Amino acid sequence: MHNLFEIDEWKVFETKFDPSKQEQAESIFSIGNGSFGQRANFEEDYSGKSLQGSYVGGVYYPDKTRVGWWKNGYPEYFAKVLNSCNWIGIRIEIDEAKLDLAKVEVRNFYRELDMKTGTLTRKFRCILADGKEIEVQSLRFCSMHNEEIAAIKYTITPINFSGNIKFTIYLDGNVINADANYDEIFWLEDTQRVGVKKGVVSSRTKKTNFLVATAMRFSFWKNDELLDIHPNCAQKSLYIDNHFEHYLEKGNSYTIKKYVSITSTLNHSEFDTVAMAINNVTAAYTGGFDILLSEHQNSWAEIWKHADIQIEGDVSAQQAIRFNIFQLFQTYTGKNPKLNIGPKGFTGEKYGGATYWDTEAYCIPFYLKTAPQEVSRQLLMYRFNQLERAIENAEKLGFKNGAALYPMVTMNGEECHNEWEITFEEIHRNGAIAFAIYNYLRHTDDWEYVQFYGRPVVFGIARFWAQRFNWSEDREKYVMLGVTGPNEYENNVNNNWYTNYIAKWCLEFALELNDKYSNNAHPLSAEEVGQFKSISSNVHFPEIAGTPIFLQQDGFLDKHLQSASEIPNNERPINQHWSWDRILRSPFIKQADVLQGIYLFEDHFSLEQIEANFDYYEPMTVHESSLSPCIHSILASKIKKEEKAYELYLRTSRLDLDDYNKEVGEGLHITSMAGTWMSIVEGMAGIRVKNDCLYLDPILPQHWQSYSFCVYFKKQPLKISIFQNKLAIENVGTANVRISYINEQIDLIPKSEKVFSIKGL
Amino acid sequence: MHNLFEIDEWKVFETKFDPSKQEQAESIFSIGNGSFGQRANFEEDYSGKSLQGSYVGGVYYPDKTRVGWWKNGYPEYFAKVLNSCNWIGIRIEIDEAKLDLAKVEVRNFYRELDMKTGTLTRKFRCILADGKEIEVQSLRFCSMHNEEIAAIKYTITPINFSGNIKFTIYLDGNVINADANYDEIFWLEDTQRVGVKKGVVSSRTKKTNFLVATAMRFSFWKNDELLDIHPNCAQKSLYIDNHFEHYLEKGNSYTIKKYVSITSTLNHSEFDTVAMAINNVTAAYTGGFDILLSEHQNSWAEIWKHADIQIEGDVSAQQAIRFNIFQLFQTYTGKNPKLNIGPKGFTGEKYGGATYWDTEAYCIPFYLKTAPQEVSRQLLMYRFNQLERAIENAEKLGFKNGAALYPMVTMNGEECHNEWEITFEEIHRNGAIAFAIYNYLRHTDDWEYVQFYGRPVVFGIARFWAQRFNWSEDREKYVMLGVTGPNEYENNVNNNWYTNYIAKWCLEFALELNDKYSNNAHPLSAEEVGQFKSISSNVHFPEIAGTPIFLQQDGFLDKHLQSASEIPNNERPINQHWSWDRILRSPFIKQADVLQGIYLFEDHFSLEQIEANFDYYEPMTVHESSLSPCIHSILASKIKKEEKAYELYLRTSRLDLDDYNKEVGEGLHITSMAGTWMSIVEGMAGIRVKNDCLYLDPILPQHWQSYSFCVYFKKQPLKISIFQNKLAIENVGTANVRISYINEQIDLIPKSEKVFSIKGL
């Protein structure tokens, strides 16, 4: 695989301007702060191919198109994440021509994302039509310290001339989505105000009525000297600017420091939103650029202290894992209970910036170990807060008595996607939400959460499953008909093994919580207890009789079974080459399905069962979901197929950096990045949590000299390092932690390190 | 069921203006001529609730909306039938106020569709604001004699005053579709020209570039005297009119005779289309209204001579069957090889006016017996002409070597619908097309057609099936995975019995044609012959072991099987009350599926098998497709469940007239009307064609005294009458026809009648 950009331990950078890579670069070099984010679009005008994207967390538009085949119970809309007010804009005009990298000769182009500090910088020279040469440098960031602040430093140096340059510093809310039907405009004008070196634009989303305010201030410097300028103000609908001409002297640097605040009614009242943006930006402007930047950098340093993974001996892997961790923390910080993690984060329009099961299945395991437990708790609370909506959603589908079906895709708790085979049938997501509560509990012992918030969620989910199974007279078993499993290359199948398995487990977990908190309000009814027991002890699971193989669903053996290696290379990925019916009929698996279940409930199965199922399914799996290879990688590590584990890890870790699927221009695969992290921590390091103990069972890829990382476990940070022949665990926390390697189990006391010598790595 | 309008043998009429029924009436009183059609919108302005609809056969717009989940191989568009230029418009203004039935007091309102003559008439009085009273009478028709002509006679009589009235006679192409996304306009301006008492508007469809021209002329009469008037002309984009004021004398009648011609590039060159409309309308105008009307009426008389069914003793049934026959002939006449039969004909926008399997499964049996065989041949040629497109369609889905998959929905041979579970999976349509060729052959002995046109179609279809089956190692049988059967309340099932059955039959039919025409060009290859034989002799058919019951699909017995009578009344129809997943999981059947197969291949099964399957499936069938009850009714007649047969017949015959499904306002269910006809002719009269003989096995519903009708068989028209205790068959043709009743078989010579006495009716 060819590298798209340059390799470095802490940076992604490019040294040449290649317009054909611009959209890819805009995604890869995106910056964000968990609250909003910005693709790496240029500050100055750019007429080349580009996907403009500025996204504000939680702000969406309910898109509806009239189609003939609307079916009863379909959600009313599909949620679109919105391209919002352009806040980066700085227009440069020299001799009446706009600076536009698509139209001038560009030299010495350098763009860098510094993941350590969360800053995007750019530097280039360009030769204008009449031979004038200028150098531009820019730096920008979305503050991780103050989630409503961003800032830009934009410097121009005339290299071989002195002369007038016109600067226009603007906010422009006249933006559209690339995926808008009929180029629909999603924003309505609210107010715009402009003053000298400041301004604000607020606009309102159609239908959803979110108010978003963007305020700016700026200052203008010659080298280190603040200049007193007198710009002209302009405004029109959804737009304000300050513009001025200035005589630039050859060899001197002239800098715009632009401060921006973005606020919305997600977090503020109607009354306060605009005022808060203005207040915020005034404070930022008053404090100054350097302070903002240093606060921002400190926040990143704090994150990295616990979240980093260091890999010795493989710079490419090192860069990749940091890129993944960096993007996850740019997307979600745990500060705001109304936010969650969209599959593309703040890097593109696709998948509507909405919440999927990715959060529970992938992101929660990541945040549980890399961040204080409050971050994961916030994600769980998000679902608790939407329990009533999940119950309403189930009611719409005909379920009763408090059964809850969480949406497949949501912005506010309502289902907001409308493919029936996904929305109505890919119900295993409900299981992942219950499992995340269980997973949180075993990491944190936060019984208070589970008792008051987790328990009702699990009960609602279990009620759904109890009603969703039906009794088959023919089999004398409970069956579950018409589902779509994690493998979305099957639709509307009967008895998906994974779904049946996690549903049965949910029923048992509900019974367990019911017993444990038998004095709490709203227990399960006696009838429910009986029903849950009866169902969970008598579920049909398809299998190949006489073998350890679990069958993905009923009828799987009717397929023409063959290895994915039979697919001609020019027909991969099949989802870009084959018709949907052909994919459905094929045995090829988009992503881990039976193996996803074995991954979650590993201890329920023998090593032989795991290996047999891995060997059966891995050859048929095409991994055309970014969520897939990591699960296979973890299981491959488990059964010590080290080469396979490493090969699968590689598929996930540089998926976006090297644009494996030729789609990175649309945005990054944020949620699957957590899977990459899991491939190392749960896969290679073999970390498991059970019986209040942290188990380790590491392998070391032969391409690496060593790797190390931190994990949180029962609130204690542990530093774990795996070398050629030793495993070192340091308790950096303040309380004992129980750890285990092979047959040895010890209580590791604070500020101590335990080293196991290991063989065979 | 309450009757929506009045009952009469030959008419549908209403005697009161009820604005709440206006959209229903607009559908029911629609008129058309196989080439274009017009909903019963008013000539004068109407500001009440209304669905404006003027549809030109074969003219469509490829609608595309951008959605996130587009899948590979999906068709590019969904075909929309277009509301076209308003040609009925006659604006009446009195004292500067427009005549608008939503705004005046209406008395003595009478609207009538005369099915015998194909005319829509309307008569009413209205009291204007200042007490002025006028009477209006209108009559209009779309000429069945000249498929590009329509005419209107519109008469006003001032009852209690003399005074000026302003007339505006116009054509208006500024029309939209009710189902347009974002109120998109589908028509682009071409030309408009206006002269004294004449004018033309032509407009062009976006994307598809159809040019449609509408030309008009008119004359103005006082009682029977042609008046010389001097109207003003006006024109604007897509609009022309003539307007004039005239002093109307109390008690006298003033009549506009408006002549219209509609032409399109479907039938004319770019160059000729506008000129042809002008020429046509000039000829019509010159000939005069009465001649046009009488030619039109004669054409209908000719149709009725052979197509009528007379029912004695049940006016409601009589009206209903005539309504169904009338609408079918209004929709399709067999004159134009480019046209076919949209599920809503020319009565609404829904289903895109496109061709479905309804044509082969329902309409061809109807036209085969009610019209000269050229009409059915034309429908078969439509598919032959699209064979190359069907091969391309299959190629898009990954099939090879001339395999043909006809589209589920088409305007021009391309698939133009985009629900994967329908488009990619409801492939049984392919079987219906092959079966129609077989059916045509047994009715007509037209071996020339079958040899040169039918055979390649059957081969293409059989090649598709051969590739679509796959070998199941597990079952050691050929299986067909991932299909949707006729019962669309199941999606993506394995081994749908009906689909497997008709596919196997197609393979056998292809082999038969290959043998029969072994000297023809392009025979099946030896490999194909071997493959077809091998597959057709070893197909898996799901069944309940040890019983005569064929199972609709694999896994059907896992369902919670129950009778549709268990569904609470307030949850019917389930497609308006239940979520899609619930419908899919339920055992409830939208329309005949296993029974559809038994209907087609009745002779392959014993009476006991037919009865057992009927008794198994009928209770679970909710008949929420208009195509369903007729098939069940025919089988009920077959197994002599006479009450059931009649009950099911009733569901179909007055479906639209009494608006059973509360949706007639959107348009009529044209194609299923053929099923109603089948319920009588194939059901009650028990007519079958086999071994070159017409078999009869009639029942007489106890509510009827007798019924009679004509059928074509081997080009000979036969008149068949069923009375209480006799069956009479008259050969009205010119050659012998073999007929059979019970065990008696005779050759009926021309101009002779055979009467069988029958018992037990």
What does this structure look like?
2 copies of one chain form a homodimer. By secondary structure, chain A is an alpha+beta fold. Chain A folds into 2 domains: 11-64 and 76-304, Glycoside hydrolase, family 65, N-terminal domain (Beta-galactosidase, Chain A, domain 5, Distorted Sandwich), CATH 2.70.98; 308-684, Alpha/alpha barrel (Glycosyltransferase), CATH 1.50.10.10. The first copy, chain A, contains 19 helices and 31 strands. In chain A, strands 1, 9, 10, 11, 12, 14, 15, 16, 17 and 20 form a 10-stranded antiparallel sheet that branches. A 5-stranded antiparallel sheet of chain A has the order 8-7-13-19-18, with no helix packed on it. In chain A, a hairpin with a 5-residue loop joins strand 10 (119-127) and strand 11 (133-142). Chain A starts with 10 loop residues before the first strand and ends with a strand. The model of chain A has no long low-confidence stretch (mean pLDDT 95).
Major protein interface: A-B, 58 and 58 residues
The counted number of beta strands of chain A is 31
Q: What quaternary form is this?
A: homodimer
Helix fraction of chain A by DSSP (H/I, runs of at least 4):
25-40%
Amount of beta strand of chain A = 15-25%
Low-pLDDT sequence parts of chain A: none
Question: Total helix count of chain A?
Answer: 19
State the major sheet of chain A.
10 strands, antiparallel
- Output mean pLDDT of chain A: 95
**Tally of structural domains of chain A:** 2
Shape category of chain A: globular
Under CATH, the topology of the largest domain in chain A can be stated as: Glycosyltransferase
